[in-house]
Amino acid sequence: MDYTQFNTQFDSQMRATWGWRGVIGYISPAVVLSYGAEYDYKFGQLGLGTMQITLGLVHATDDNLGRVLPGLDMAAKALADQGAQFVCLGGPPATLVDGVDHNVLIKKRLEEITKLPCTTALLATIDAFHALKMKKIIIVEPGSSDGLDIWAVRMKKYFEDNGFKVVNTRSARSKTTTLGKAKLPMDLPYNLAKEAILETPDADGIYMACGVWGGPPVVQRLEAEFGKPVVFDDTQCYWAAMKALNIRLPVKGLGKLFETM
Predict the structure, then answer these.
(1) What pTM does this model have?
(2) Residue 19: pLDDT over 60
(3) Cα–Cα nearest to 211, from 74, 45, 33, 60
């Protein structure tokens, strides 16, 4: 028997089997847009399946988050019941409301409900910073729908309370919804990050908040041009899932974080 041909056929069949390496459950506070789908496709080729549930958030205000977060328990249970092997709550604003310990409490709550390994986007971000040896951070974010920089301020405090130093922050200050952020020019997050890097060249890396703007091309360009790692929402959730599911598979083309596997 030609085992080379057999292995090729086997590999082809496995690639066609959804989630054969693992199934990730992802809870998005807001509506899931195209950049998430792009990553789903790329990780799908590696045998990682993704199930997503949205809590229906449109404007990320404290009042609106208070209305949608009660649906978190039901969403997590639904993902577990459908076969997820890992659950992540994305959307950093959802877990910035109640201080530094709130993410840990949510993680424990999700694990009690699902009986699965779980995390939040911010906890995964902290782990990613450690893996990439990022101590001095640049935050780049699109802004909040009320036009204030409240989320940037809260993120800065959260990271510094966890022992990191935020050396620069750039905000597009876009007064828009999630869909509106996805329609921002592709060069906007790139140029904001570039400005911050040139202003604070001693930064170890960049945290690009909000997973609906920028995307993989911006991450790759920034890393190639400036040699600094970029952690981009909510791809750190995929990375955390791969670690939790013991999938030690370095991935090229998705940023330096995935080369640490």
Answers:
(1) 0.84
(2) yes
(3) 33
